[in-house]
Amino acid sequence: MSGPVESLMQGLAELYESGKLSDFEISCGRYTFNVHKAVICAQSKYFHVPCGREYAEGQRGSIKLKAVEESDDDEACDDPEAVKLMVQFFYHLEYDAKPLELMPVPEEPLEEHLAEAPVIDDSVPGPWSIHGLSSRKRMNRCKRCGRRGLEEDRSYDGTRTTTTTSKSTTDECKSLDGNVVMHAKVFAAAVKYQVPALQKLATSKFRRAAEINWKDSSFAEAARIAYTTTPECVRDIRDTVVKTISDHPILLQRTSIESTVKDIAALNFELLHKAYGLAAMAEVKDVDEGLDSLEYGIRDIL
Amino acid sequence: MPIIAAGTMANAKNQGLNGADVDFETTWGILEKAFQEIHTKNASALSFEELYRNAYKIVLKKKGEELYNHVAQFEESWLGNTVRVEIVRHLTALLMLGEGTGRTMNTQTERREAGERFLKSLKGAWEDHQVCMGMLTDVLMYMDRVYCTDHRQPSIFAKSMGLFRDQILRTPVRQGSPTLLQILTRIILDQIQMDRDGEAIDQFLIKANVYMLEGLYDSDQEVEDDKLYLRTFELEFLHSSAEFYREEGERLLKESDAGTYCRHAKRRIDEENDRCRSTLSESTTPKIQRVVEDELIRHKMKGLIEMETGVAFMVENDKFHELSLVFDLEARVDPKKPELTKAMHKLITELGTNINNTAITASQTPAQPATTEEAGDDAQGKSKGGSAKAINQQTVAALKWVEDILSLKDRFDHVCKASFASDQAVSTAINRSMADIINAFSRGSEYISLFIDDNMKKGIKNKSEAEIDTTLEKAITILRYLSDKDIFETYYKKHLCKRLLLKKSQSIDVEKQMISRMKIELGNSFTLKLEAMFKDMTLSEELANGYRSHVRNLGDVDPRRMDLGINVLTAMTWPLEAFRGAGEHEGNEGKAQVIYPPSIDKVRLGFEHYYSETHSGRRLTWQTNMGDADIKGTFPKSKGGKTRSYDINCSTYAMLILLLFNDLPADQSISLEEIQVRTNISMNDLTRNLQSLSVAPKTRVLLKTPMSREVKAGDRFSFNEGFKSEYIKVKVGVVSAGNKVEGDRERKETEKKNNDSRSFAIEAAVVRIMKARKDLSHAQLLTETISQLSAQFKPDVNMIKKRIESLIEREYLERIEEAPVASYRYLA
Question: Is there a contact between B53 and A64 if contact means CB atoms under 8 Å apart?
């Protein structure tokens, strides 16, 4: 029933929830997470340093990541929600962004989300659309989901069929996984804190969410986040923004989108580029490899 | 694509997206202050989150390049203004004076300590720099990832290592003075020199500095081959080491002995290996080893071997251990050991040539007076006697030669085993050298055969089987080296023939053993004829017995009838010419038969008759010169005595001569010429036999007038009634019937015969090859012929050419006219 990977995942989830043996603390805004150095350092190069002894954080045994609300509109600061999802990912290799309507619901226990997740993801055809899935299956599905997303993206030609497929699932997905803004923020955090696996996961989630929720007003915000908090060389999410807008030019008539596009020169240029049918901006390969390598890493350990 | 990307950049910048929002200077101010703290080892109060976030912000706002440059500038000025000043402070003024340093320093200890202070300060600076840059890299992680990767800039860590190199190592301490890198190199070399001189140094300190040089690169590209260590220090180190060992090697060659030199060289190599491990870098090990090997071994090997206490001395004084040291040294630099093998070759050639020369001198010295005397007519007898002695001396020389050569070989074999681990290359060289000297000696074949001959006749008497075995093995050993085996065969046949016919051999068993050994060593074809000789001997014995019983069965037993012992020899197998005296070599083939008295002739005819009954179609030729006879001589009573009778053993010729006196009254005499006419014995044999019968004091059964040592024309002979001997049995020896080395004329003849037989062998080989191959180029034919014949002898190329010519004339072969290279075709 439970193989080595499942056991490890289960064990990690238990450690996270109980906070047992925690040897480090990450705090951001109203959240505080009791984490394990080994777990976070295994996935993020960033955390090696505060977990070491050189700096004040290391001696205190805690790090306080400056939250957006504390500062005066500083893009370098973090959204505590995104940090929370990142920590969630460290332990579950998966994260659940809150649905647009519900957010934010700060103190909601994670377990409920996990239980809910399969229903929401039912849009993906497969034999596992049952309640109470094990972590292992969840992970598998997510991986599949990610892959599937990529495939669809490559073959996507804007035909009606695909669009209708998306549409039919919209209602369900809008409620939870369709939170484009949150995926963009998680992606930015993954880049900032050097978590390649999370970067990949967020990218695919963002892409699916954009396919479903492009009509939502939050898309303009997501586009802005994508272009201001991630470096130019990391193409993943930017490409999706450009593609979504050029697939649905109607968006440009919306005020929120209009002001965003006007503000961001790079987005401007890339849209123009796309409109004239020039090749994609850049190929990004390294991120794709992240998740696979992490999984292999876990297998190796076991 | 890159063009578009670049365009995007420019676009973004010009529009100044959010650029105004970032107060770069403020943010950098925070970072700079923190970096200052880090460099002064005061980082524990700093918040990593804040620093990272600020650096992240700058990069996010596309100020990555500015940040990078600011950091670089910060490091540059820190290194240049703070770190370098500190190091230079540690640098004693004295150290900077350069070359003169060593002499002006008060003591070596002071110099070493000053050097250590400098090394320590540099090591400290390097380690601090590493740690600080590690921390800075953590803070600037995002910049490295986004800015450096995207703009193909070296990481800030690599950049700062380059700055360390430029600011600390490459900048002159002051105008016109050497750089710290040069000083560092000089100080390390100086310390290593102290180490070589036996003073204790701080190896870890040097190792740390070497480690630094290994971590730095010549350029910012960080190419592996461009390590500063390889580019600067190692070159200097190898160069100065080469110089040091060159001088040391030369000095040692002059001042010490070869054994000490070897031990020293070995120690130095080990030391340098250890030094690389403990003080420098392992990667230098093979290089410095090569340098030391070059300077102390490769370039000095010849000098070492030729030292007064060198290899020749070691071999002479049995210094096996030291020889093995020499061997180890050379084996280290060249598996072929060219110098040592050359030395061995030279030594063996030298000693071997001595042996050869001694043998030649020994064989010539006594011959000298004989040659001068030969001018006079009446000196002939003396000359004979003289050369008899000479012959004896030559045999001694031959035996000595063989023993000397063998002991030479034994000695070097022992050296090879004891000192050179029976090394293949060296033992091959020794063997080749042995072969060279043995074959360089023109009488080698003859001497080896004589050695065996002597042992067969005398040497093996009273020896145990094991000893005999050793003796035989000796002969075989030396025989192995001989290339002209055909010549040896000729001599061996001749000597064997005499041993067999004259029954001189101690043991036929040993003879046969020898033959079977040769068979193993030289092959079947070599011993074929020798074995045939033994077979003839056996058959003859049966034949003689058969004849005797045949005679008995005739019934008519005549008590006065003579008993006949006979050896029937196959003419082709036996070297009968060997028994012709030196004087009869020319035109004696068809000489008339000697005249037998009727009593003897009857026996002869009887046997011929008996033989032709069993073996028809064969012709018997009597080799009277090889026979001997037992006769009874009766001498009349002398005053107060009684009749004496002796058993006289003499040659067949002597018997014929003596029988003439049976019919002669005691007081009459016969002249030499008359004897010759009545017996038809050649004059040469006649005089020799008469000399034995009338001159030799113990066997003087005839009287000669006039009395003189020589038998000359006109001499007359009569029966010596007063002959007396202490023994009943009297053996009449014939001069020069013994074993001997050949005379010059004999040798020439042997050579000529040998050349003839070689010609046949060559022709046979050529025809065999051509028959198989039909068409063949000249060069190939030569090669194949030489290889076919190599078991027998080393053929002379000119001789082969002549043989081919002759075969073409006789239409066995023809030249292929149209062939591009000279070629032949076989004509069936």
Answer: no
